[in-house]
């Protein structure tokens, strides 16, 4: 039973549609009301009729008793004084007699007829002797038993007499007069002689005709039932109207709002409702829907901007990182390729940004065409990422992994070849250099680690002139860690003045006189450890530290050269190497001028050496900077000449003074005919351009003799002297001057 109750309770508490509350409860309650009227009204009407009959009977009984008492107390007492009148219940049989009070009461009761719609009967279980044969009927007997127990409560029932429904009311007939009590105690026919005031002697039975009242009451009940049915019908029609005008629009709005939450737009009409509030709600919703449409459009645009590249329409870096994280955590083994366009800024600067944008779009199209089954994104301005998860599984065999590696290698080569094919943009044939990094992801690696490894491989590919596709290996990280450590220590070395300039003399071959000295930087740690420039110069260039280091070396070289001249040594030029990073600085000319001004050195005793590869950039900008430096009065030399790719037309436009033959050609010049030919060619080129030529790396007399025979102008190398710190070089200068 309890479970049934809980089930019903749950059903009741479950949310229901508004239409249910409008169309179901009220008709149910109306039907229940009609049923109640049908069942309760007849009984209620009968009870009302009975109560009215009882009230009438009680009033009539009280009236009859009052008349009887008056008759007994005032009439009989006066008549009793006349001996000629007999007081008897047989007064009708005697001419000179009057009735006793009981008979008087009975005769008064019998005076009511059917026309009065009631009948009165007096009976008693204690009749006079002459009436001893009179017996009470069943109702009277039942009433007597009840009245003797509770004389203050009349007894009533419905009955049918001669086809009419009547109400029979039994009321106790009490002794309320002393005269009546005395009469009954003294009368010879009295059945008892011990009567007292208040005793119930008999019953006054009043029968009230209730037929008319019942008919009227039933007609009223029928009218009530009809009114209830009419009310129910009106209520149903009203509910239907309400449902149409209120519930239907609300349901339409609800459905539209649900669809709106699912980013769907559903048309809804609510303006035809007859209710102001519903119309206002509908208008408010339509306004909200329009606002939501605009919001969704803006949200879509924001999402497009947040997760897609506006130029290529590819997913952006944020989307790529999210996808990479999902795939790495779910699949375990996948491959990330990062494709970068090298020196893209040069395309923007030379051909314009509109060409650069079109180039990026074309690159994106070629990548997506080649990698249609993979996830392609624009990683940043010049980088694209490709996430390949084909055949990725956490439990791949070594054979499958090798196959994937081969597929990735083939794809990388295909990409490189495809992207290095010239692009036809507007009227230009655009050639691009491409670097590709490959990172194989395994064992649920974190995204930051994956990207870091990819960037390490990409950096290696960018800095390499031959290997433009680099697959990440742990060794690359080790090399990066070493470079990072080197840069950190290099910063400390600058502060501790551990970077020391060394000087290697340069001699004129024809006279044997010292004509210059090249400044070579050495790193000497506090413990005396010597770090080769071969290790720290590349780190300084990639980190940008070469700029402050180069400026400091330039200042020291100018100051020391001026100092040696002031000490009386014969003037000579001091050659300072300038890296490509330094030369690219806009402030290079100003910094050279400031170093000269600060030291007081005559500019003609300063030479700047720039590598051939550092000059392979914008020729007009290079010529401008070199010309500005020449205008300061200094000399300019191309260092490591012969290792680059300068053309004669390019070289003759440069305002330079000297060519320096790289030591790689001098080292084996005696045995190697190719090196001999190259040196001869450089010497002839210098002479034709009226440039001095200096050979580096001379280590023995045979090499010096060959260079002298070839009319080389100047030379430097271990044959003459090793690079020396400033104090040793000063001693070396004194030694030379003594000779």
From TrEMBL:
Keywords: c-di-GMP, Membrane, Transmembrane, Transmembrane helix
Residue ranges of domain EAL in the record: 483-737
EC primary class: hydrolase
Gene Ontology MF, one: cyclic-guanylate-specific phosphodiesterase activity
Protein name per Swiss-Prot or TrEMBL: cyclic-guanylate-specific phosphodiesterase
EC number: 3.1.4.52
Protein species of origin: Thalassotalea euphylliae
A Pfam match: Tll0287-like
PANTHER family, sorted: CYCLIC DI-GMP PHOSPHODIESTERASE PDEF, SIGNALING PROTEIN YKOW
Segments traversing the membrane: 20-41
């Amino acid at each position: 039973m309890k479970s049934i109750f809980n089930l019903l309770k749950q059903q009741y508490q479950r949310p229901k549609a508004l239409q249910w509350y409008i169309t179901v409860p009220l008709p149910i309650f109306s039907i229940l009301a009609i049923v109640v009227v049908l069942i309760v009204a007849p009984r209620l009407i009968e009870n009302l009729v009975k109560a009215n009959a009882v009230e009438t009977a009680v009033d009539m009984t009280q009236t009859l008793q009052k008349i009887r008492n008056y008759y007994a107390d005032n009439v009989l007492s006066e008549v009793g004084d006349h001996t000629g009148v007999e007081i008897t219940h047989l007064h009708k049989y005697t001419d000179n007699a009057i009735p006793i009070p009981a008979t008087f009461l009975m005769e008064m009761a019998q005076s009511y007829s059917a026309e009065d719609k009631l009948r009165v009967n007096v009976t008693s279980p204690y009749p006079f002797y002459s009436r001893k044969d009179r017996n009470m009927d069943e109702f009277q007997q039942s009433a007597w038993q009840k009245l003797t127990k509770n004389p203050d409560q009349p007894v009533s029932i419905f009955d049918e007499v001669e086809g009419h429904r009547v109400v029979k009311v039994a009321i106790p007939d009490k002794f309320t007069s002393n005269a009546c009590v005395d009469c009954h105690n003294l009368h010879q026919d009295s059945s008892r002689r011990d009567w007292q005031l208040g005793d119930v002697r008999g019953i006054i039975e009043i029968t009230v005709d209730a037929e008319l009242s019942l008919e009227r009451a039933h007609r009223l009940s029928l009218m009530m039932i009809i009114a209830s049915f009419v009310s129910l019908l009106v209520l149903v029609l009203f509910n239907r109207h309400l449902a149409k005008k209120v519930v239907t629009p609300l349901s339409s709005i609800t459905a539209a709002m649900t669809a709106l939450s699912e980013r769907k737009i559903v048309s809804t009409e609510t303006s035809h409702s007859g209710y102001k509030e519903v119309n206002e709600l509908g208008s408010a919703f339509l306004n909200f829907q329009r606002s939501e449409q605009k919001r969704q459009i803006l949200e879509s645009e924001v999402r497009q901007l947040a997760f897609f590249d506006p130029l290529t329409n590819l997913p952006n870096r944020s989307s790529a990182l999210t996808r990479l994280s999902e795939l790495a955590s779910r699949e375990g083994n996948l491959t990330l390729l990062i494709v970068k366009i090298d020196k893209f800024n040069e395309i923007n600067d030379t051909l314009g940004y509109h060409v650069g944008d079109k180039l990026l779009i074309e690159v994106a199209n070629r990548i997506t065409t080649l990698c249609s089954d993979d996830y392609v994104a624009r990683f940043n301005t010049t980088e694209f990422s490709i996430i390949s998860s084909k055949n990725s599984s956490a439990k791949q065999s070594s054979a499958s992994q090798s196959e994937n590696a081969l597929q990735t290698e083939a794809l990388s080569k295909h990409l490189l070849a495809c992207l290095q094919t010239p692009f036809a943009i507007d009227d230009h044939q655009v050639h691009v250099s491409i670097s590709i990094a490959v990172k194989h992801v395994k064992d649920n690696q974190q995204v930051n680690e994956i990207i870091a490894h990819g960037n390490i491989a990409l950096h290696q590919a960018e800095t390499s002139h031959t290997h433009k596709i680099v697959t990440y290996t742990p060794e690359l990280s080790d090399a990066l860690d070493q470079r990072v450590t080197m840069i950190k220590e290099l910063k400390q070395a600058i502060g501790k003045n551990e970077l020391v300039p060394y000087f290697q003399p340069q001699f004129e071959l024809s006279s044997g006189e010292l004509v210059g000295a090249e400044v070579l930087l050495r790193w000497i740690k506090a413990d005396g450890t010597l770090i080769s420039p071969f290790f720290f110069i590349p780190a300084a260039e990639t980190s940008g530290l070469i700029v402050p280091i180069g400026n400091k070396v330039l200042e020291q070289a100018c100051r020391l050269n001026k100092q040696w001249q002031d000490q009386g040594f014969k003037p000579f030029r001091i050659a300072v190497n300038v890296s490509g990073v330094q030369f690219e600085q806009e402030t290079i000319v100003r910094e050279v001028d400031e170093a000269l001004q600060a030291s007081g050195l005559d500019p003609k005793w300063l030479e700047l050496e720039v590598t051939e590869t550092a000059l392979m950039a914008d020729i007009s900008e290079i010529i401008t900077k070199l010309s500005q430096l020449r205008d300061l009065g200094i000399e300019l030399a191309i260092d490591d000449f012969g290792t680059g790719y300068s053309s004669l037309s390019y070289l003759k436009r440069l305002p330079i003074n000297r060519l320096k033959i790289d030591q790689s050609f001098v080292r084996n010049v005696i045995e190697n005919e190719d090196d001999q030919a190259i040196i001869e060619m450089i010497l002839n080129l210098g002479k034709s351009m009226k440039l001095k030529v200096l050979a580096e790396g001379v280590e023995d007399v045979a090499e010096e003799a060959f260079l002298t025979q070839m009319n080389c102008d100047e030379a430097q190398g271990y044959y003459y002297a090793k690079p020396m710190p400033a104090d040793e070089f000063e001693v070396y200068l004194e030694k030379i001057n003594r000779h």
